[in-house]
Amino acid sequence: MSPLTAPDCLFCRIVAGEVPAEVVISTDTMVAFRDIAPQAPVHVLVTPRDHHADVAQLAAADPELLADLVRTANEVAEDLADGQFRMIFNTGTRSGQSVFHVHAHVLAGAQLGWSPA
Ligand code: AMP
Q: Among the atoms of ligand 1, which is closest to the Cα of residue 43?
């Protein structure tokens, strides 16, 4: 089945292979690629092939796909770091979201400096 797509969506174009990216994991459902402006030694964006605007919309529409995304994030961290990672979903412009195709920022590979605890 073809993935859900949206016109003029940068990450739809990356998952389709129309825009180059440094892909680290590619499955039937997910593409994980390195962020072009990394904020940590490992900074990978984990992106479902299906277009959903943000994590809340993904959770409502397809919770199993969200679980799949989390499993893929863990796999990225196992492959590229020590299996420990921070996962961030910016949700809405005030949070800093700039690409409205859901993606998890997976940050790893260093002692990260800030914690909400
Ligand atoms: P957000 O601001 O949470 O929507 O995250 C979007 C992320 O996409 C930013 O961290 C950008 O650096 C990253 N980004 C934008 N364009 C590309 C691209 N062509 N390849 C890889 N990462 C990108």
A: 10
Cα–Cα distance measured from residue 52 to residue 60, given in angstroms and rounded to the nearest whole number: 10
Task: Report pTM.
Answer: 0.96
Mean pLDDT by 10 residues, the chain (117 residues): 87 97 98 98 98 98 98 98 97 97 97 81
Question: Does residue 103 carry a catalytic annotation?
Answer: yes
d(CA 31, CA 20): 12
Catalytic residue among 43, 101, 103, 105: 103
Token pair of 31, please?
A: 């593409």
User: Is the shortest distance between the CB of 53 and ligand 1 below 6 Å?
Assistant: no
For the Cβ of 111 lying below 6 angstroms from any atom of ligand 1, the answer is: no
Q: Which CATH homologous superfamily contains domain 10-105?
A: HIT-like (3.30.428.10)
- Any residues with CB less than 8 A from the CB of 70 and at least 6 apart, and which? 87, 104
Atom of ligand 1 nearest to the CA of 89: 3
